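Q: What structure does this chain adopt?
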Amino acid sequence: MRINFSIPRERGNSGVIKMLKFASSVKNYTRLNMRRLSTKNVALVGVFAALHVILYFMSPPALWRSWAIYLEPIEGILLGPWAGFSAALIGSIVARMIKPTYDWMFGIVAEPVGVLACGLLAKGRWRPVMAIYAFMLTAYFVHPFGRWLPLWTILDILLAFALIYPVAKIGKGLFEEDVKRLPLSLILVSFIGTVADALTRVFLLIPAGLYTLLGWPLEDVYLVFVAEAIDSYIEDVLVVAVSFLVGTPLFVALRRIPSLKYPLS
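A:
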């Protein structure tokens, strides 16, 4: 006697068809969501790039850097390291293409690095930030000018370097539901980010040798470096103050928008 264990063709085909339809719907849903996320990322990158341009034109000549430094911590935390880096790079390039200055190369490199540092620390990734600081500081001290220029001019850089690891550990307070740790985390991340911006400018000026391209003699390098160090300390305080006064209520408000999940990258 022969027993047929085969599945009826109709029932088997029906199950396969249903599974294929389900897989296809999941695939289309995932693709649609990824497209929406990508569109939102591109839109926010464009908005922050435009803000970089606007703040560049609003900057008074009183201090060293563009007003875009006040945007860097918020940009890095909200967009994340890579989307934030892209927005800062695009914005800084466009701004200086419209209104070039003799020192245009400093902002184009330094502003994206500052945003990148904030974005990485907010995600607890301290190693890349430590590597950036270590590389630039080593290059600075290896250069003869690094041993000749006053040490007090880079004390904020040395302090930020020492704070990288602990700040990365508490930086997750930026995304916790309890907002008690938000102000402290935001202040510390902002400090290290804006100092990373300043360190990049120091690296470009001294180890990278842009002072020779600018035609500055030794005496001018010393005077400019000391004067800009004073400005940099003032800007450190201003960036931290802006982050506390503007960034804290902003991120508290953003948490009330369920559809907005950050960082985006």
